[in-house]
Amino acid sequence: MVEWTRAEKRTFLRQRMEARLAALLMENKEYVEALALLSTLVKEFRRLDDKLLLVDIDLLESKLHFSLRNLPKAKAAPTAARTAANAIYYPPAQQGTIDFQSGILNAEEKYCKTGYKYFFKGFESFNALGNSRAVSTFKYMLFCKIMVSQADDVVGIISSKAGLQSLKLFENAIYDYKAEIEDDPVIHRHLSSLYDTLLEQNRCRLIEPFSRVEIAHIAELIELPIDHVEKLSQMILDKKFTGTLDQGAGCLIIFEDLKADAIYSATLDTIATWRRLLRAFMSGQPKSWRE
């Protein structure tokens, strides 16, 4: 069909057919071929100043660059799309798509709070239209809240904060809702980071009552293998808490956090100040005085 439009010189139809072909190539994960086709189209649409279709092309280009892990170019495309959309009337559904893509890019760079704002705007657009994409956008909104440890902000949708802190439930949720969670390319990229965050929070919460505890006991409480818990040594190096690992006894020894004494530090500052003043005073006196 695309070849026919080229042969018949149906420029208007060819451009739209090629845009659709690029979208299909992206769905088939043929990203390089899709981007090559799209780069030519972008130049043509900019010359024609067809802003309505140019916005769609920019969004598609952003998705392709994102799939190829080229974040700088992926972020530039929604900016261009938003600029073009501001110059014309752009349907609310497409406006929501711009916000949705911007939310994905911000979340990818760990700016989950900013990502949440974009997802919220996208959700409002989709929800007002009864668009099915409102569900996936809402899912990303909740995910952003979890990523910034604000799960309690979605009370009534998520049962409890304690439930979110359970790594066992986390693993079960991934297994039970594989299609919605692990098979989602955006959320899948963040699962490892979220899992490590939850694991770290659980370790800190569990060791808090102890001064000395067996590693095997912590693993039993978290209901995870011992090798998951042995990463405590890295947490000690990262100064998440103060302690040491007794590998021979298989124990973790936790020290109390020593709070700095304000009077002690103030006294040191005073002594240092007097030392500087004394040196300044002595430097201006005769040599016999300094001796």
UniProtKB/TrEMBL annotation:
Gene: BnaA07g08190D
UniProt domain PCI: residue ranges: 189-271
SUPFAM superfamilies: Winged helix' DNA-binding domain
Gene Ontology molecular function: structural molecule activity
Source organism superkingdom: Eukaryota
GO biological process: ubiquitin-dependent protein catabolic process
Lineage, uppermost ranks: Eukaryota, Viridiplantae, Streptophyta, Embryophyta, Tracheophyta
Name of the protein described by the UniProt record: (rape) hypothetical protein
Pfam family, one: PCI
